[in-house]
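Section 4.2 – Deliverable D4.2 (structural model, holo form)

The reporting period included a commitment to supply a predicted holo structure for the target in complex with LNCXM5UN. Inputs used:
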Amino acid sequence: MQDAADMPVTRVEVGLGARAYDILIGPGLVARAGDEIARRMAGVRCAVVTDENVAAVHLDALADSLGRAGVEHSAITLDPGEKTKSFGPFERVVDALLGARLERGDLVIALGGGVIGDLAGFAAGVVRRGMGFVQVPTSLLAQVDSSVGGKTGINTTHGKNLVGVFHQPRLVLADTAALDTLPAREFRAGYAEMVKYGLIDRPGFFDWLERNWRDVFAGGAARVEAIAESCRAKAAIVARDETEAGERALLNLGHTFGHALEAATGYDGRRLVHGEGVAIGMTLAHRFSVRLNQCSADDAEKVEAHLAGVGLPTRMADISGQLPGAEALLTYIMQDKKVSRGALTFILTRGIGRSYIAKDLPAAEVLSFLRENHPG
Ligand SMILES: NC(=O)c1ccc[n+]([C@@H]2O[C@H](COP(=O)([O-])OP(=O)(O)OC[C@H]3O[C@@H](n4cnc5c(N)ncnc54)[C@H](O)[C@@H]3O)[C@@H](O)[C@H]2O)c1
Ligand SMILES: O=C(O)C(=O)C[C@@H](O)[C@H](O)[C@H](O)COP(=O)(O)O
Ligand SMILES: [Zn+2]
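Output (structure tokens):
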């Protein structure tokens, strides 16, 4: 068997000056994590935050790696699922970090999907006003999106990610072999965020995914390349606009609708997970753009056909159970962080790879679109 140290690794830099960091992508990086951390941050103590599903398959390998490299570590294991991204588990993590007397210069390691990354990153961002933070993303979604860029936080009953801070990791270790244990539904959900980069401003990447998605799902070189291209796309935007003063909002394509649907389904992952909400939201954003005479119906249909073709939901009607009405969905949308002076901002599109930020959209327009598309 090939030694983890010899396996090929792709490096993508997030160019944030004094806070720049590497994203390393490839198989075997969990086994290499101890060495990578010890080499860059000698003498740190660590708390690994993870969930039960991930702990069962990857925590021992990470703990062994840290141990071999002489990095002192402990672990906090939480329930899996979106409901964990909330005040109760957040308090538990904060309490455990302080109880272990970790210092500001010590490290929180997020081992898991986006739920764990967002929650652990938020704790790292506020405990002692900012501890060190390393992401070890184990879901496709986390490897292509949530582990990069420093958005951290938790949900509330008012809406998604409404409490949090920007806090960049020092290092991201995306072990692509860890995806072998990821359930198929979760892989598809992460794929939606991958497609998002093509739809924002990389039409060539969208075309490539249309042709090669089966290889991406199968694993191997195409998957690693698609993850690396996604990280390059995100890193480029984050490096230009770290705190979403402007163009970073493009990364929210599909999220204004998607987040409302997640909140409206009570963050119940049996009904809808984040990437699925993004798939429905991106389809709606394209259809809404058609309605506003910004995008051709052909492009909107092409996007929906690709997302549906890989097995993702694309319509509100694809969500099981009853949804609250259009007015209730609009109430969630009005809580979106892009709202400014009470006016809605949406990410719309002029076609595949031509997304743009649309400010001051009339709520009445959004409401009638929601009514037209509502299943009930
Ligand atoms: N911060 C950001 O920039 C950003 C970007 C995108 C999404 N997000 C957030 O990320 C969250 C969604 O992340 P997610 O899709 O990774 O969900 P998740 O963290 O809930 O992980 C999905 C499921 O897969 C399991 N899992 C993860 N890795 C596994 C593995 N290798 N083997 C077996 N099981 C594994 C988890 O236990 C969970 O049940 C949402 O809360 C979303 O808001 C944040
Ligand atoms: O990194 C970003 O910026 C994103 O918008 C990426 C999104 O995929 C992600 O879901 C993010 O958490 C949404 O951010 P929010 O600011 O709308 O909560
Ligand atoms: Zn997202």
